[in-house]
Design a protein that fits this description.
The structure is a single chain. The chain is an alpha+beta fold. The protein has two domains: 8-151, no CATH class; 169-329, Alpha-Beta Plaits, CATH 3.30.70. The protein is 52% helix and 16% strand. It has helices at residues 8-16, 24-31, 35-45, 59-73, 79-106, 118-162, 182-188, 191-211, 231-246, 273-284, 294-300; strands at residues 171-179, 215-219, 223-228, 254-262, 264-266, 269-271, 290-292, 306-310, 314-316, 320-322, 325-329. α3 (35-45) runs parallel beside α5. The longest helix is centred in the middle third of the chain and has 45 residues, at 118-162. It is globular and about 75 Å long.
Length: 341
């Protein structure tokens, strides 16, 4: 550790909200879980394995193990279910934590390509010490909001099954937005500039998806995957994302592929032929355009706001010959409505 930098143990205890006072053996004994179960939990959270004699656990760690044990004892979840739940938390919070630290570093007057100075680290620690109590409720608030939205979607999926969907899966519009020539752009830009382009693209797409009532399923650097409960919402998201990115001169255009059909929602992701079809359609789209499948085209055909144009049938890997359509906004002038006498 360089001279002048804060003690790592003090930083860890500050952020953990408690003193490192227990070994793994202590944590297992106090929480009442088995050694094997505690190991599965810690790996699912994404924490490193510690030797039995290392003092690396807080009262909060013991309390967390105790809560998870009670979920099993009360029959709410079995051990495998608890591990899957913990893994979801761990993977989500890992990205959130890295994102927050990067955000704090970006606010400091220092080159992001250089290791943080002692002064920069002290500033970040000071912010954490003064405001972490204000950040924590925001995490719970965001989780509850997203949990409410996911619960509503689950109810909609149940209604779909009751209405006779043969596969028992919700009918969903799924779309991919992919930055054009990203590999070439990544060679031309400095790393920090490329990171800003990707961040702007992800933020823009996320804001559009959320504001129009869809869900951002995941981001993949130069690509985002979104879903929507109706064909109309999916179409609006696809067209708006393509247009918004096209209007930004310093960011490559995107091409969007979207399809409508049954999907399998699992662990926050979506799977199935509809998802694969949307991904394949993306590769058929020209920069700044939206290409959709026949099912989505049929749902939108005749709608006053959209223009659906059939293009040449194409073979796509894994799906055979498909009939794609180009989706545009309908710009044709509409006849004036007769005046009411």
């Amino acid at each position: 550790m360089s001279a002048g930098l804060p003690d790592p143990k003090e930083i860890e205890e500050l952020l953990l909200g408690g003193e490192l006072r227990y070994t793994r053996v202590d944590a297992v004994r106090l929480s009442g879980v088995s050694r094997e179960f505690s190991g599965r939990i810690w790996r699912a959270f994404g924490y490193p394995s510690m030797p039995d004699e290392t003092v690396a656990y807080t009262d909060g760690d013991v309390a967390a193990l105790d809560r998870l044990r009670r979920l099993v004892d009360d029959g709410i979840l079995d051990e495998d279910g608890v591990v899957r739940l913990v893994r979801a938390f761990g993977q989500t919070m890992t990205r959130l934590a890295e994102w927050q630290v990067s955000l704090l570093r970006s606010m400091l007057p220092q080159d992001m390509n250089e290791p943080p100075s002692a002064e920069a680290v002290e500033t970040i620690v000071d912010i954490a010490e003064k405001h972490i109590g204000e950040f924590e409720p925001l995490v719970v608030h965001a989780w509850r909001r997203q949990l409410a939205a996911a619960g509503t979607r689950a109810l909609g999926a149940a209604a779909t099954r009751e209405n006779g969907d043969p596969a028992g899966r919700p009918m969903t519009t799924v779309g991919f937005a992919d930055m054009v020539s990203f590999t070439q752009v990544s060679r031309e830009l400095e790393e920090i500039e490329l990171a800003r382009v990707v961040e702007w693209f992800e933020e823009t797409a996320a804001d559009i998806v959320a504001s129009l009532g869809g869900r951002l399923v995941k981001t993949l650097g130069d690509e985002v995957l979104f879903s929507a409960e109706t064909p109309e919402i999916g179409a609006e998201i696809a067209l708006t994302v393509a247009s918004a990115i096209q209007d930004e001169t310093e960011v490559p255009d995107v091409r969007v592929g979207a399809a409508y059909g049954p999907v399998l929602p699992l662990m926050g992701d979506v799977f199935g032929t509809t998802v694969n079809l949307a991904a394949r359609l993306t590769s058929l789209a020209r920069p700044g355009s939206v290409v959709i499948d026949a099912e989505l085209a049929a749902r939108l055909d005749g709608r006053p706001d959209y223009e659906v144009t059939r293009i040449v049938r194409r073979p796509v890997r894994g799906l055979g010959i498909i009939q794609p359509y180009v989706l545009r906004r309908d710009r044709r002038p509409r006849p004036a409505e007769p005046e009411t006498p």
